[in-house]
Design goal:
Layout lengths: L10 E4 L2 E4 L10 H5 L2 E3 L2 E4 L2 E2 L2 H14 L8 H15 L4 E9 L13 E8 L8 H6 L1 E5 L20 H13 L4 E5 L5 E3 L4 E6 L2 E4 L9 H12 L3 E4 L12 E6 L3 E8 L2 E2 L7 H15 L2
Parallel strand pairs: 8-9, 8-15, 12-13
Antiparallel strand pairs: 1-2, 1-7, 3-6, 4-5, 4-6, 6-7, 9-10, 11-12, 11-14, 14-15, 15-16
Amino acid sequence: MSKSFEKREGWIWMNGQFIPWQNATSHIISQGLHYASAVFEGERAYNGKIFKSEEHTKRLFKSAEIIGINIPFTEDEINEAKNELIRKMNYKDCYVRPLAWRGGDQMGISTNNSNINVAIAVWDDWASYFKIEDRKAGLRLITSPWKRPAPDTAPYQAKASGPYIICTMSKEFAEQKGFHDALMLDYRGYVAEGTGANIFFIKNNDIHTPIPDCFLNGITRQAVIKMAMEQGFKITERHILPEEINNYDEAFLTGTAAEITPISSIDDVKFTTGGNTTTFKFMGDFSEMVNKSS
């Protein structure tokens, strides 16, 4: 078991200063804690350089804007803080977590007088949400009983903390049933995504993926779509019914932590995995791409 995140050594950038890891704390009375009034990013550095760093920072600021948080730093300041923190921690390959949240100057639902905190942490022992042996064999998914909400009921274009409780409950449901992850449907019953990653399906030279109209259009998702199109694959974004997934040969997840991870099954539907698959090739191509950009 990895060391508790509360008891680690090193530094965290918080509100413009580098603070010893175990001293980077927030008061128990905090709107961010009580009402999930926070936004965050998940990023990865390869050989010391963050993949799509500026895109992630722009999304952080956009997420904050959507839920009414005014980040008291510029995008350039956040980008530089991320890079400086990685250097200070002496990391090459690591996970990067910026976070902005409402503090404890005001309590309750009203946010008129809220103070805003911003922090960045990095760590190097979270290579993936999934074990490497599970990624090689392919993940087993089960359909979650929890659904992605309608776009007029949750800020789906923001990477906000609150809506992630649905993902947490879905992940817990899957693991308690002996699966690696859950397939989440949307409020209409269409295929949406995994609990923390976007989903793709492959049939010959065609790749289908759900339309991100009630869930986050991931930055890794966009990069993989561009990569596949440059290789001549036809990408179709459409609404996919659960009963259609047995028409595909392969399936995979994409995300910052997941990168590209093959799926071996969803409920009773089996998919092809292994070294001769398109997904396996994509895994290598993606690794080459992110390392080339560093």
